[in-house]
Structure formats: C-alpha cells, structure tokens
Amino acid sequence: MKRKILNGAVLTVSLFLFTITASSQVLNEGTFKFGRTLSLIDAFYVDSANLDMLTEKAIVEVLKNLDPHSTYISAKDVKEMNEPLNGNFEGIGVQFNLLRDSIIIVEPISGGPSEKVGIRAGDRILTIDKEKVTGVNITTTGVRSRLMGPKGTKVNITVYRKGVKDILDFIIIRDKIPIYSVIASYMLDKETGYIKLDKFAATTEKEFSDAVVSLKKSNMKNLVLDLRNNGGGYMLAATELAEKFFSDQKLLVYLVGRKTPRQDFKSTGNGSLSSSRVVVLTDEGSASASEIFAGAMQDWDRGVILGRRTFGKGLVQNGFYLTDGSMIRLTIARYYTPTGRSIQRPYNEGYDKYMENFYKRFTNGELMSADSIRLPDSLKYKTLVNRRVVYGGGGIMPDVFVSADTTSNSTYFNKLFAKNVLNTFTLEFYDKNRTLLNSQYKSFDDFKTKFQFSPDDIKSFIAKGESEGVKFNEEQFNKSKDEILLILKGYVASNMWQTNELYQIVNENDKVIDKALKVISDKKSYNSILGFQ
C-alpha cells in the first residue's frame, strides 16, 4: 500500500532520440484525401463543424491504430509534458498544497526565487497579481498556471503568516526551478546505500553521481537502486547510469526500425561502481528507460533484478511538431537488450486489449506468484556471461520475485486514499503543530526514533475520514493501522524535511527492501543468483 504515497507514474514516457528531416516526408494520395475531406465538411456540411477538433480526433485515432505508444499531444500540453524530463521549469519555486480552499506553502525550493524574498513554509497565498485565490475553489492547475511563467517575469503575491498581524506583500521574479529525479538517497545499513529514482531525465546522471559521492562518504560499498514505478524517460539517461556499473566496454542497448538503421549504445568502461554489488528493484510500473537499465544489468549478469515483472515497453518514439505547436510522438524503432531481447508486450490486438492485458496482472495472481506468468520457450534467451535463462516479449522478469504486500490492505484504507484523507489530515496536523514539532524534534533521527501519534491524534484522523465520507470500520482500521500510521508519520517528515525523509520512514516496513538487503549482504547468495560459482 505504501506505493500509493506517490503519484502514479506515467508508464509510457517516450524517448527523444532522433531528428528526422522534412525531406523524408512524402505527401501521398491519402494525405490529399484527408485534406479534401475536411475541406468538403467545411464547405458543405449541414451544420457548423469544429475542424480543429475533428482533425485532432482523427490524428488520435490514426495513431491509436498503429501502436499503444504513438500519441498526439496538444500544443498547450507540450511544454508541461517536457518539463520533468528537461529537469526544470520556470516559476517562483514553491511546493504547495490546497488546504481548505487555501494555497498553503509546504516549502520554498532551496535557492529558488521564493526563498530568496522570504517566503516561508506555512504561508498562505491570498492573492496572485491582485486576483483573490482563497475561497474560490481554485484547482492545482489553476495555481500552477498563475505562478509559473517565463524566467525574468514578475509575479505579485500577498500572503497570510501566522503570528504576523499584517498581510505580507511579495514581488517575486520567476526563474528556472530544478525538478529532481533522485528523490531519496540514504544508507540502509553500514555498507548498503539506497537510491530511489523517479524518472530518467536530463539531470539524472549528475544527480545520481552526487548521491553516490555522498553515500560513499558514509562508507557505501553496495547499492540498492529502486526503479519501482519509474515510468522511464530519456534512453541516454539510462545508458549513462548503466555505464557506472561496468569496468569495460559493453553493449547496453541497441535500436533498429524500418527507417532507422541499427544504433548501438555501449559503456565507456569507466564505471565508478564497477566493483559494487547492486540490486535493482522493479515492478509493473517500471517501464521504458527503467527496462533498458534493468535489461542491460541482467543480460551481463551484473546485478540482481528483484521484485516483479516490468511494464513491457520496448518502442522508441520521436517527437514531431505540427504547425500549431502540437506534437506527434511517433514510434520509429524498437530497442533491444544486449542479448537481443525485445521486451515490448504484444499489441497486435489493439490498444484497448493491450491495456486490458496489463491490468489483468492485478487480478490473475501475477503480483502474488511468479508461477502465474507463462512465457513460451521461443522467448527464452541466455545471459551473456553465465548463460542464465531470461525472457523477452513482455517486460523484464526479475531474478528474485517478491510478491505484492497486501497484509495491510483493506477497503477502508483504499477509500481513505481515494479521498486524499491521509495527505489532508497531515497538512492540517502539521499546520496546527508546526511550532511545537519543529522545537521538539531538532533532527530527523530524533523524529524517526521518538515521534508517535497520540490516541487523540488517531481519533482526529478517523473523524477526518468520516467528514470526507469514509465511514469508520474498526476491523479494517486495525488491519491497516500500522501502515496508516507509518505513512502519516512519513508525510509529517516530508513536511518538516524532504521526500528523502519520507522514504526513510515508509521504507521501514517494505518487504521488498528487506529482501534486497538480505540478498546484497550475503555475497555467496548474491553470486549464486547471478550464476557465479
């Protein structure tokens, strides 16, 4: 259940790799036929027709009939779509949440323009450029659209701050704000580091390297790399990361398509982690670039893949801009792991069946037992060092399977998540107790060891659920209680510090990480899994 603390990762993040020149595009009879159809509708159709809307719908349907990952992105969505992979956006630099129809600052981003002018955690934004934004049912999208904008432009906001009599006015000059792909990095034990990677972006290699340098100062020798729910991103970010685990030149992935000649991507042989044991955590949310990385590590018997089968996306998209600023992401190639495996799931029955087959994993027992996965012998491959059997044709199968943890699952718990009760309660709890908590817990270690919710806090949480329409169920609450309180504690930690501290809390009860630690700490067992004698 703790995986729900994250926003669902997009499973089909595309890979931008090539520039295709206009000279390769040929206008044929079908092109003119489509244009002629739209012209006839415009000229003679009985009612007025929205040609822009018809065109977009037609494009969407055409692409949907090619493969599941060729997509159309409207002009207004293109910039927002690219921001996470570019590693930055332009705005005022705050993390915020909507609490009781108020915009509450969770934290100004370190070094960002808001922090520089004195915005503090807990401030409530009242107006943005003289527009009232409290009590008007503003949405998260509405807040973002008002606060984000081109670097160098100004935004005027007024805020209410507890303990300050007057309303505070700020003029903030927007700037580039970093988006991080390494969202947690800490030591699991005296020799094992842990890094949680959220996506493969332009800044991933540097973020990862910085995290490794920091962990090595704490005596890290081996690494657990968490790619669960990592939907992918840039292929080159995945190969840059994989390079760090090899001391010589190795093929990491190759691409080939009807109009795309084969391109090989190899390690340089300067891997700073080439002697470290590594366990890579995967699940059904690990896709695209995550699968490239896991496939390379598995094919060369370089690291243990642990968890559950990955999503199964092995198609490469290139972005083509259209005249109005919209974009088509068109599949132009397939990628293959070093053994020649294509890990793309079949899509010959169409998009709907493709997604239906994926969601069947949640009902057919696959998340609980590896034995429920049936793959034909034709998809068997042998790893390149120790000749272990691996499979293509439907994601990366882990070397060590760990079932999904459902011990704390309950309908009551699910409803609390669906209604966002855990997050809302935590925001209110921290807002009410901010001064006390910050004075009582001077360090995260102190908080982690000593903090507990009181019986009255738990009653308030249950009451919050009731107020949001989630009827209390004592039996189900008791089943989920430990997990609920752990996640609530993690949320409080993230309000006081960062997501790094959030993960240090919620990972305490993660049996996948527990298993990874056992595997990586036992050199004999680790080597045996990889086929070394």
Account of the protein in words:
The protein is of the alpha+beta class and 533 residues long. It has three domains: 88-178, PDZ domain (Pdz3 Domain); 182-324 and 332-405, 2-enoyl-CoA Hydratase, Chain A, domain 1, CATH 3.90.226; 407-509, no CATH class. It is built from 17 helices and 21 strands. It has helices at residues 29-44, 51-64, 75-86, 113-117, 140-147, 204-217, 235-243, 289-299, 351-359, 411-418, 421-440, 444-450, 455-467, 474-496, 499-506, 511-521, 523-529; strands at 71-73, 88-91, 94-99, 102-108, 124-128, 131-132, 154-160, 168-173, 175-178, 182-187, 192-197, 222-226, 251-256, 263-266, 278-282, 304-307, 315-321, 327-336, 380-382, 389-391, 400-401. α14 runs antiparallel to α15.
Number of domains: 3
CATH superfamily of the largest domain: 2-enoyl-CoA Hydratase, Chain A, domain 1
Helical content band: 25-40%
Inertia-based shape: globular
Oligomer: single chain
- The low-pLDDT segments are 2-24
Strand-pairing-aware structural class? alpha+beta
Short description:
The chain has helices spanning 29-44, 51-64, 75-86, 113-117, 140-147, 204-217, 235-243, 289-299, 351-359, 411-418, 421-440, 444-450, 455-467, 474-496, 499-506, 511-521, 523-529; strands at residues 71-73, 88-91, 94-99, 102-108, 124-128, 131-132, 154-160, 168-173, 175-178, 182-187, 192-197, 222-226, 251-256, 263-266, 278-282, 304-307, 315-321, 327-336, 380-382, 389-391, 400-401. The protein has 533 residues and is of the alpha+beta class. It folds into three domains: 88-178, Pdz3 Domain (Roll); 182-324 and 332-405, 2-enoyl-CoA Hydratase, Chain A, domain 1; 407-509, no CATH class.
